[in-house]
Amino acid sequence: MFQGIWLMIMGFMLWTPGLIPKGCFMNLEEGHLVVRCRSDEALHRAKSLVNIEFSWFLVCVTVFSVSVYLVLARIYGKDSFEYEAIRSESDDIELQKSNTTTKPALQDDGPSSKRFIHDVGKISGYSAGSDMER
């Protein structure tokens, strides 16, 4: 949105003869009107004006956006709604069933390194024998 409005403003500023910077003119080149400047000084003046214009445009858009935000925050203040988890009864029943039927994947049957090796052996199909535990 910002870029689109900026391009519309620049189009309005560049192709309105009364708003063309001092020392610049419109020239017909290859079927289009092009803004050209007579000297380097006029070109630098035109570039400076565009930079100032962009800065003011950015400030105006920022002030407008913050103003709209503050108005909407006042209208729809944070006291007017609360966040809630959306759950149905069927979700709760399924959750209870899954908690009672699942067993923990790892059981505490010794030091964690041996338990890890033992569980990896189960997963990969290789039984962890005495060679792995040494």
TrEMBL record:
It comes from the Eukaryota. The chain crosses the membrane at residues 54-72. InterPro entries: DUF716. Residues 97-117 are annotated as: Disordered. It is found in: Membrane. It holds the Pfam family DUF716. Keywords: Membrane, Transmembrane, Transmembrane helix. It is a multi-pass membrane protein. GO terms for cellular component: membrane. Belongs to the TMEM45 family. This is Uncharacterized protein.
